[in-house]
């Protein structure tokens, strides 16, 4: 059959996840065994990050996509779009009018994969453990609105919140709120290495070489009780060094499906006609890319320097040269498709304009050219990242206002250095924890933010974020959310660049690929199955 691109609309939940299976092909598990999934995500245990898969530490899309298959949460984001629904819980909901008391009742008969029963006290232990450990990844900040956790009997859990938080059900759907067995996860320390246990749809066996997970074998958990329908018995996830190696494995039939992260060239090739028996599925995504600033660093401490960069960067040219139709320029931390989005950066700066950028620097008496190094990670966001930063460098240098160099570093070195404040300017991506505007703002701007940023705006932290969280109707929160975005555009602690789509490429006997990723880039391996080629 011809390769074909299936473009899925935002409301994917209304579609049947069916791919045509016409035209035979060998598959990565031709005996009908495990479905083999390729990824370029790297999973490394190191001195700086010894516990990459502990729910109290993990905070990137790759490790979360392992945890979501194995560690159960009270709530889960639905198959398509919409509010989270009960998972380990039988029911959950606010029990007051102020969104400050949230109660859940566990499903009856839940078990960890080792056979131990899952009780309300385990939920309390897991949540309290993540909050008290305060891992330097910053993931515990998702639970910052919790005051106390109360249990009533073996199945009822009550969360008393410090302040109103309409987004709390979403937060209970994230892996930091995953339920772990107290016998396996110490209260006062992280669980080092790649051992992992839970009550989710799969158990996992990690194949580790040189402190790096190279293959994860997911096996259906026979004791799983929850809201998910598991369409396969076994999934093998293989980590590749780069997109090229992953693509070759798909072409040879060593894997059945690949997703994060394909190169722009691969996606363009897969979109064309070729008799290969591979389908490319394109779907909306909420991935964003941005530049972060250490606002205490001498080179960018002046707001005028950051504003001049915002004025000089040409997002349209950047996207066109590097990603083409696979991305769109972004003028806020909040993606255009999320309720509460405002084009605050465009409203303030308009199109790229060197004359206006020069004026900003002149008014602040900044000597030009401003010498800077832009840091990026070589192996976390895909092979096009280097080219992206070459284009950014050339744009800034061609203005005559900056003298910019670029430096790439592997993720296991890059991320710890960024958190320690060793980079003045650095490139990062964000895959949302949940699809709400709050999750594109608070993680970067609130206390204990994920970047370790010294930027502190009291109006945002003390007034606007709490105001926005009081509104259960998220459209009603738009005024506060817009005010936050406008302040960010003025102060530029971060500089949003683009918003991307997401893709899955699979051999044509693999079904369920339309649901393999949700809008928050959650990998849903339970949706995959093997159809009939022919």
Automatic annotation (TrEMBL):
It is found in: Cell envelope. Keywords: Signal, Transport. InterPro entries: Peptide/Ni-bd, SBP_5, SBP_5_dom. The keyword Signal applies. Residues 1-20 form the signal peptide. The keyword Repeat does not apply. Residues 84-449 form the Solute-binding protein family domain. This is ABC transporter substrate-binding protein. It comes from Streptomyces violaceus.
């Amino acid at each position: 059959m011809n390769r074909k691109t299936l473009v899925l609309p935002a409301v994917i939940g209304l579609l049947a996840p069916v791919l045509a299976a016409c035209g035979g092909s060998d598959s990565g598990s031709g005996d009908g065994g495990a479905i083999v999934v390729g990824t370029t995500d790297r999973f490394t245990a190191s001195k700086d990050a010894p516990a990459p898969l502990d729910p109290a530490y993990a905070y990137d899309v790759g490790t979360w996509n392992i945890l979501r298959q194995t560690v159960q949460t009270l709530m889960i984001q639905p198959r398509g779009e919409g509010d989270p629904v009960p998972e380990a819980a039988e029911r959950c909901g606010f029990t007051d009018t102020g969104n400050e008391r949230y109660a859940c009742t566990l499903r009856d008969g839940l078990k960890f994969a080792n056979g131990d029963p899952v009780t309300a006290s385990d939920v309390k232990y897991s949540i309290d453990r993540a909050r008290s450990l305060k891992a330097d990844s910053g993931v515990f900040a998702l639970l910052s609105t919790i005051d106390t956790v109360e249990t009533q009997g073996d199945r009822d859990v009550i969360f008393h919140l410090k302040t109103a938080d309409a987004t709390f059900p979403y937060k209970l759907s994230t892996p930091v709120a995953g339920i772990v067995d107290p016998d396996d996860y110490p209260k006062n320390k992280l669980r080092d290495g790649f051992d992992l246990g839970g009550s989710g749809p799969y158990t996992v066996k990690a194949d580790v070489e040189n402190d790096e997970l190279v293959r994860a074998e997911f096996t259906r958990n026979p004791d799983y009780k929850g809201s998910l329908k598991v369409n396969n018995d076994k999934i093998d996830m293989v980590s590749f060094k780069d997109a090229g190696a992953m693509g070759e494995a798909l072409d040879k039939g060593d894997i059945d499906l690949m997703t994060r992260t394909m190169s722009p060239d691969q996606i363009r090739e897969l979109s064309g006609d070729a008799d290969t028996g591979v389908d490319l599925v394109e779907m909306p995504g909420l991935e964003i890319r941005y530049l972060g600033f250490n606002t205490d660093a001498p080179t960018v401490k002046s707001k005028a320097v950051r504003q001049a960069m915002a004025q000089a960067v040409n997002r349209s040219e950047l996207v066109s040269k590097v990603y083409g139709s696979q991305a769109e320029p972004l003028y806020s931390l909040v993606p255009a498709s999320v309720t509460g989005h405002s084009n605050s950066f465009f409203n303030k700066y308009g199109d790229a304009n060197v004359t206006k950028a020069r004026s900003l620097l002149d008014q602040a008496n900044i000597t030009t050219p401003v010498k800077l190094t832009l840091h990026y990670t070589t192996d976390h966001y895909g092979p096009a990242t280097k080219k992206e930063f070459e284009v950014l460098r050339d744009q800034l240098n061609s203005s005559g206002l900056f003298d910019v160099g670029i430096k790439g570093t592997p993720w296991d070195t890059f991320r710890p250095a960024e958190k320690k404040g060793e980079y003045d300017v650095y490139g990062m991506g964000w895959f949302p924890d949940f699809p709400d505007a709050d999750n594109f703002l608070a993680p970067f701007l609130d206390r204990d933010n994920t970047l370790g940023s010294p930027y502190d705006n009291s109006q945002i932290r003390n007034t606007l974020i709490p105001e926005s969280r009081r509104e259960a109707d998220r459209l009603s929160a738009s005024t506060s959310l817009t005010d936050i975005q406008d302040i960010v555009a003025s102060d530029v602690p971060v500089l949003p660049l683009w918003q991307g789509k997401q893709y899955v490429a699979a051999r044509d006997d693999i079904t369920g690929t339309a649901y393999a990723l949700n809008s928050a880039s959650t990998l849903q391996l339970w949706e995959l199955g093997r159809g009939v080629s022919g």
